[in-house]
Amino acid sequence: MPWLMVLILLFALGIAVFAAQNGQSVEVHFLTTSGETTLAVVILAAAAAGAVVVALLSLVPAYSSRMEVRRLQAQLKTLQAQRDAAQPAPEESSSSS
């Protein structure tokens, strides 16, 4: 997993360098709004929006995995209770000398 963090950091560094090298002013249109900003801001905003979308989409499998773990833990407790109820009580040995 550490190699994945290194890869992510290298990718982020590449985006930052690319954005820094593209500092010219551009006109941006979005839906009914338009404005002028630098290309670097547009690049960084697009990268940040992409990161947010990926993070939100990764929450879905994480949430379903968590729900599955809770369901299996409840099932395990039920099965353990059934096993304990089905086992005979240990006999007490009464040895009088």
How would you portray this structure in words?
The chain is an alpha+beta fold. It has one domain. It has helices at 2-20, 39-86; strands at 25-30, 33-38. It has a two-stranded antiparallel ribbon. A hairpin with a 2-residue loop joins strand 1 and strand 2. Helix 1 runs antiparallel to helix 2 (39-86). The longest helix is centred in the middle third of the chain and has 48 residues, at 39-86. It is elongated, with a radius of gyration of 29 Å. The model has no long low-confidence stretch (mean pLDDT 83).
Brief overview:
With 97 residues, the protein is α+β, with helices and mostly antiparallel strands.
Topology record:
Blueprint: H1 2-20, E1 25-30, E2 33-38, H2 39-86
Antiparallel strand pairs: 1-2
Helix pairs in contact: 1-2
Report, as a whole number of angstroms, the end-to-end distance: 66 Å
Strand residue percentage: 5-15%
Please count the beta strands (DSSP E, at least 2 residues each). 2
Given the helix and strand composition, which structural class is it? alpha+beta
Mean of pLDDT: 83
Strand order of the largest sheet: 1-2
How is the biggest beta sheet arranged?
A: 2 strands, antiparallel
Helix content: 55-70%
What is the 3D shape?
elongated
Order of helices and strands: HEEH
User: What Rg is obtained from the alpha carbons, in whole angstroms?
Assistant: 29 Å
Q: What's the number of domains?
A: 1
Q: What's the tally of helices?
A: 2
Low-confidence stretches: none
